[in-house]
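Aim 2 progress update. The chain analyzed this quarter is reproduced below.
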Amino acid sequence: MYSVLIVDDEPLSREVAMRRLEREGYHVTVAENGLRACELMEVELFDLILLDLNMPRMSGYEVLEWVQQRQARIDSKIIVLTAARDRDSVTRSLHGGANDYLVKSAGTPELLNRVRRLCTLRALENSAAGAIPARRLREARILVVEDQLTTVELLLARLKNADFTARSVTDGAAALAALAERPCDLLLLDYHLPDMSGLAIIEEVRRHHAPEEVAIVLVTGEEDRERIEACYAAGADDYVSKPFHAADLLNRVENALNLKFLRQRARAAGEDPATLALP
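Predicted structure tokens:
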């Protein structure tokens, strides 16, 4: 059973998140402020921390700094909770050591997806001799599937600036053909393409490639939560909303690649990576 610490000064937010996670089988502890959270982390090692940024006495940023100073013994994954998806808070949080972020208004499926993903990542790291080296991540083969030229140019530029190598295609048929011809490690996939929906592509890819073979991250302006949730259910690993923050995009790419390679390592060791996703 995975253990989760919820740190939020709003009683209703704490209660709602706690009930949602407990129903899924997580062991949940709550803290009403950053100081109390640090006290709890001195005693128990949590798999995941849901951390509000704006709190009195000790902010989420200060908690991140406190955790960073104790990295040798506190290896919890951290999702920061933000009231709005503004560039400064997302970038500052990720640079401060957070592994992901979640806008408070996001629905239950998004909360559970992010919690499940990071708990799985931590479990795989613990069972498979640690995280994947940064050098291995940078060697990953990335395929961008996007029909808007401006978006393609920006995605390829951001990936290149981070030392990733990527190529691009402009529709679903070309993506499937490219994947059949030359395997890749990660698809960066738009939902709206000229010939196929992102969902249809995910379903087709997952018929032939398991998550440990190909990771899939949606990069799209699609805002229909049911469509996004259908993509998760079909096998997408993550979702980046347009317009995207560069730090957010690269964080989700790295998380998805880490999961992919760790799943691959676990499979090679005779383990079933799917079982590690269960609370």
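The mean pLDDT is 91. The chain has eleven helices and ten strands. These observations will guide the mutagenesis experiments scheduled for the next reporting period.
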